[in-house]
């Protein structure tokens, strides 16, 4: 397998679930290999990843994410409640208190929290949280948006109509945002863009030719890129697989060797593959495109950063 090429692209991974125990070598509670978290970060840096945004999807995640990002200069986090976790508001016995705890965490970690989220709607996984509960607490979290005055990190899966209606209803509160892990149609992309939002592209956004065609309909100055690690990797069976240029040596988790990635465990370094696929599919200059996407992201989530 070819070693990764040295690249000069500047990239920001807007979505990585770095609190997942697989990045510590733990899979379903079993230690398969040594903690390779720092190796994983170095691989990302080596391909040009300058910042990573950890996605927090509930109160517990937010606490863990803030503890993690406090130890790393170029890693940041979001704060909010994922649609599939919104039942936690009610299970806590005090929905307002649950949100106040999120707000307290935000107040204590102002320099490291860059977005409200991950929040939104997910009708593909109603077994985890009923539709009515998702709708109620998607709306409820706009109180947090209003207080924190941060951009949004949004999730929409098979819920475009309701998602759009809620965004439009709260548009005056929104200081920009991105709908991450986009897998919708060209029409859904156009609706998101019409609301002033950006669109996040990862491996799941590029599985089929229809996915790729929808991605190609989005202007470059409205795209951000992500891995959603450890999920959403680009695979050889995907329509995008043939467009990948950079490969990393990998081993199965139980046969892992130091210096290798873990097979099927996505990680931030693989964002280079997302960039390669987007550039090839759109027939755009990859360096110019990377610079535009980097600036899209920097201006939204890191406005005080000059580079």
TrEMBL record:
Coiled coil: none annotated. A divalent metal cation 2 binds at residues 155, 180. The lineage of its organism: Eukaryota, Metazoa, Spiralia, Lophotrochozoa, Mollusca. One of its GO terms (molecular function) is 3'-5'-DNA exonuclease activity. A divalent metal cation 1 binds at residues 118, 228. GO terms for cellular component: cytosol. This is Deoxyribonuclease TATDN1. The keyword Hydrolase applies. Keywords: Hydrolase, Metal-binding, Nuclease. Gene3D superfamilies: Metal-dependent hydrolases. Deoxyribonuclease which catalyzes (in vitro) the decatenation of kinetoplast DNA, which are circular DNA catenated to each other, producing linear DNA molecules. Plays an important role in chromosomal segregation and cell cycle progression during eye development probably via its DNA decatenation activity. Belongs to the metallo-dependent hydrolases superfamily. TatD-type hydrolase family.
């Amino acid at each position: 397998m070819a070693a990764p090429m040295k690249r000069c692209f500047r990239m920001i991974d807007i979505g990585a679930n770095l609190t997942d125990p697989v990045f510590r070598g733990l899979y379903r509670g079993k230690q398969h290999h040594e903690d390779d978290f720092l190796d994983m970060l170095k691989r990302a840096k080596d391909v040009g990843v300058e910042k990573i945004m950890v996605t927090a999807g509930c109160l517990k995640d937010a606490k863990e994410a803030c503890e993690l990002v406090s130890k790393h200069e170029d890693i940041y986090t979001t704060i909010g409640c994922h649609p599939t976790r919104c039942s936690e508001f009610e299970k806590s016995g005090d929905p307002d208190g649950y949100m106040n705890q999120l707000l307290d965490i935000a107040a204590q970690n102002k320099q490291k929290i860059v977005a409200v989220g991950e929040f939104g709607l997910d009708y593909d996984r109603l077994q985890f949280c009923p539709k009515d509960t998702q709708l109620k607490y998607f709306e409820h979290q706009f109180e947090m948006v209003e207080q924190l005055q941060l951009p949004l990190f949004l999730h929409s899966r098979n819920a475009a109509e309701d998602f759009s209606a809620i965004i439009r209803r709260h548009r005056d509160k929104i200081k920009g945002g991105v709908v991450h892990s986009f897998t919708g149609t060209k029409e859904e992309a156009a609706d998101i863009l019409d609301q002033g939002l950006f669109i996040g592209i990862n491996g799941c956004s590029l599985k089929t030719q229809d996915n790729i065609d929808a991605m190609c309909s989005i202007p470059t100055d409205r795209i951000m890129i992500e891995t959603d690690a450890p999920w959403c990797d680009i695979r050889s069976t995907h329509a995008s697989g043939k467009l990948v240029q950079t490969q990393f040596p990998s081993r199965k988790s139980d046969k892992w060797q130091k210096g290798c990635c873990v097979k099927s465990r996505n990680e931030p370094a693989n964002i280079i593959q997302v960039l390669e696929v987007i550039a090839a599919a759109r027939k755009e200059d990859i360096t110019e495109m990377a610079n535009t996407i980097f600036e899209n992201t920097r201006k939204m989530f890191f406005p005080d950063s000059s580079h």
